[in-house]
């Protein structure tokens, strides 16, 4: 047993790697406590989002799981020239999840997931030194995924899901070329897109299981955007109209994950995940306005990997305890660091618990990610990626609470 654990651990550590960006925390209170190691975790209905193949191996009960999720980024910025420190306004990125699974037969099961996997909410003081780049920016997304899975045999199952995604984007910045500090540009748009998710789950014995899943990219088509310009001098009124429509596309990344789960002892389950997130599809963010200047912002994200380890200990039939560690690699290149989302490589730790009350299981999870220091420099040749020189430091807090409920009779 020990030799198997060490060999599995070495396999993942030698891969070492990782995916930050604007992904929200793990989409379940249980999985927050596990550090997000979910690809081979077959004890919760949230499996249908992270690996549809697990659905085929859930027991023959109807499972419901729902809850809330909050993510807070606290970022400080120290200007390279001004030596002035600015602290981002404290905000909480709200989210939530709902999962339902139902057995059609012993081998065929269906499910539905609704969650909020991507998003951010950045707010700086109105007149901070980078206000001409961004004062506030936010993205909110909702994924709806009906899923079906088939158990091929007692040790192997396959699953697939269709994704409908909706997103809303907001952005505000000051127009620093004018003396009036109230000169402001605001952009707001919403739209939808479609995608898919596939996965497989297998067991090599009673103790060891594995999972592989792939979630395809989703392009949100936003053609109903509105750009508003306020406090513009009369001389430039034609350049910056009071209101104008615009269109954009926002590309949300794909994800390829491999996971293992090892029942180390009767009471202890250990899970491992390795994920490659296809952030390179997020090359730029462009607003094509009907009137007024087009906005072209380079992003040039890179594909990034993540490594996660979680443990779940069964204290009793009514109490489960969890802990996890994770390392997420940022997809943001040094030359494209922006105050809109000053992300960095993240080292995280988490704790969680579940308490059974009759047929209800109350779930709670908390995670803290410490982001490495990022230093931004101004490159005058990158006119599509204006920036401000300085150093960012960020902490990411994630808190989730939920309820799980199962009913029916096992076959």
UniProtKB/TrEMBL annotation:
Where is the chain membrane-spanning? Answer: none
Give the membrane topology, semicolon-separated if more than one. Answer: Multi-pass membrane protein
Output one GO MF annotation: long-chain fatty acid transporting porin activity
- Write down a Pfam family by its short name: Toluene_X
Q: Which keywords annotate this record? A: Cell outer membrane, Membrane, Signal, Transmembrane, Transmembrane beta strand
Main localization (coarse): membrane
Q: Which Gene3D superfamilies match?
A: Outer membrane protein transport protein (OMPP1/FadL/TodX) (2.40.160.60)
Renumbered to this chain, the signal peptide range is 1-19
Looking at the UniProt record for this protein, which Gene Ontology cellular component terms does it annotate, in alphabetical order?
cell outer membrane
Q: Which domain of life is it from?
A: Bacteria
* Database matches in InterPro entries: OMPP1/FadL/TodX
Where does this polypeptide localize? Cell outer membrane
Q: Does the keyword Metal-binding apply?
A: no
Claim: Signal is one of the keywords in the record: yes
Q: Which SUPFAM superfamilies match?
A: Porins (SSF56935)
The family classification in the record reads: Belongs to the OmpP1/FadL family.
The name this protein goes by in its record: Aromatic hydrocarbon degradation protein
Species of origin reads Hymenobacter metallilatus
């Amino acid at each position: 047993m020990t030799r198997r654990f060490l060999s599995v651990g070495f396999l993942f550590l030698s891969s070492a790697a990782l995916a930050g960006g604007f992904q929200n925390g793990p989409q379940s209170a249980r999985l927050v406590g596990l550090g997000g190691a979910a690809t081979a975790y077959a004890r919760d209905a949230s499996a249908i989002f992270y690996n549809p193949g697990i659905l085929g191996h859930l027991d023959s009960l109807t499972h419901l799981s729902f809850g809330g999720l909050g993510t807070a980024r606290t970022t400080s910025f120290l200007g390279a020239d001004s030596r002035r420190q600015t602290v981002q306004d404290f905000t909480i990125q709200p989210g939530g999840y709902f999962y339902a699974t139902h057995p059609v037969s012993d081998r065929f099961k269906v499910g539905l997931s609704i969650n909020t996997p991507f998003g951010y909410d950045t707010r700086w003081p109105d007149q901070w030194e980078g206000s001409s780049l961004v004062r506030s920016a936010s993205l909110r997304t909702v994924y709806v995924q009906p899923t079906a899975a088939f158990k091929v045999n007692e040790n192997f199952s396959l699953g697939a899901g269709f994704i409908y995604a909706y997103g809303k984007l907001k952005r505000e910045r000051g127009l620093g070329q004018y003396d009036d500090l109230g000169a402001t540009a605001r952009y707001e748009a919403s739209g939808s897109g479609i995608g898919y998710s596939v996965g497989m789950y297998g067991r090599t014995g009673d103790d060891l299981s594995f999972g592989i899943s792939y979630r395809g990219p989703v392009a949100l088509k936003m053609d109903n955007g509105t750009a508003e310009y306020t406090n513009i001098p009369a001389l430039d009124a034609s350049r910056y109209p009071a209101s104008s429509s615009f269109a954009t596309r926002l590309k949300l990344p794909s994800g390829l994950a491999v996971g293992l789960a090892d029942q180390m002892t009767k009471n202890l389950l250990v899970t491992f995940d390795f994920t490659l997130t296809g952030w390179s599809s997020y090359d730029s963010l462009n607003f094509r306005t009907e009137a007024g200047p087009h906005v072209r912002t380079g992003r040039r994200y890179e594909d990034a990997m993540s490594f996660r380890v979680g443990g779940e200990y069964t204290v009793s039939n009514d109490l489960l305890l969890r802990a996890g560690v994770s390392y997420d690699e940022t997809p943001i290149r040094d030359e494209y660091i922006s105050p809109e989302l000053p992300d960095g490589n993240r080292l995280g730790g988490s704790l969680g618990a579940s308490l059974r009350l009759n047929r209800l299981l109350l779930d709670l999870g908390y995670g803290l990610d410490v982001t490495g220091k990022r230093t931004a420099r101004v490159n005058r040749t990158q006119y599509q990626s204006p920036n401000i020189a300085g150093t960012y430091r960020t902490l990411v807090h994630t808190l989730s609470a939920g309820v799980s409920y199962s009913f029916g009779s096992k076959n």
